Amino acid sequence: MSPVRPATKDRPAPTSPQVRDFAAPGAGFAIEWDVRPVYDFLFSLTDEAGRTEDLPEADRTWLRETKAAMPANVRAEFDGGIFATELGIFVAGFAVDRPEIQTAVAFVDALDAVSTDDLLRAILRDVERDPELGGLVQRAIAGDSEALDALRDHMPDHKAGIHALLSDPPDAHRRIVRVLRAWATPFAAIEPRIRKILERDHALRAADRGAYAGSELIERTTGGVRWLGEVGIRRVILAPSYFSRPFNFLLAGDDWRFFGYPVADEALEVVDRLSPPAALIRLHRALGDETRLRILKLLAGKDLYLTEIAQQLDLSKPTIKHHLALLRAAGLVTVTESGAVIYYTLRRERLEAASADLAGFLVP
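Request: output the structure for the sequence above.
Response:
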């Protein structure tokens, strides 16, 4: 791998160091806190960013208008290229073991300098770990067209991104750098403000870091993702994110798991005293949809896998996954992950507290 470019006079070293705060290890793994805006730089490019009121209106408008102002060849990548699915965002894993990368500009410079093979493996690292798909990834990277076709068939949700990434890897490398370099310019203007939000969230969780550890700390931080550990995973990275709100972004490495979790409501700057708490909005938004109510009804009977819910409601997995993410963000559902096994559980206590939360806002 090519070395990361050192700091220069035009691109000085950061004055605010990355926070790498190690909590007490639990269940064979240690927890790290990674507080850098470089992840938000990438998460802000996802389709989900700014889709809900969890992001203040000013930044939803900024996202919408800034993306629309990008050059035509960059906008094309959002509509049908590498960034048309979430696949391009997986490049965020490239920053996990590179604490010297503090800013969006430094991240793009590092991607520009790295070899194409290393870039592809950073994006496809989690897929490559799959026993069924790992061999296909290696063959596709080497130029095997049959392996590329098979990989697209196995990953229908990322079909366009897989084709764009592996049909011509050197060109894909150039396109990724072009898109991210274009996005880094406007993002740099808001980066200091985003960093302050992330640092406030990290400070707000000091009590949790002292009171909880292991899977319990992960679940509390992510707002309902219960991770039970995996063989060979020694590190879990918790990274606060502003633009991910209200969702969690999960990445995987050889010996680590990464949770880009949404910053707490208290980390934001709220100036309108009449504004209802964001948690209350999330709760009632989640309950105000027929499909989500049907999901809750199913989960009231028993814990279920994603496939089981999709089959019973006759809807696609991506659709159900989106609804479940909103239910998890509202505190109504717990997502339990144990290796390749993922299932969903109703949080009955949150339902019972719903009326009290509304009354507490209206009648203080």
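Confidence is low (pLDDT under 50) at residues 1-26.
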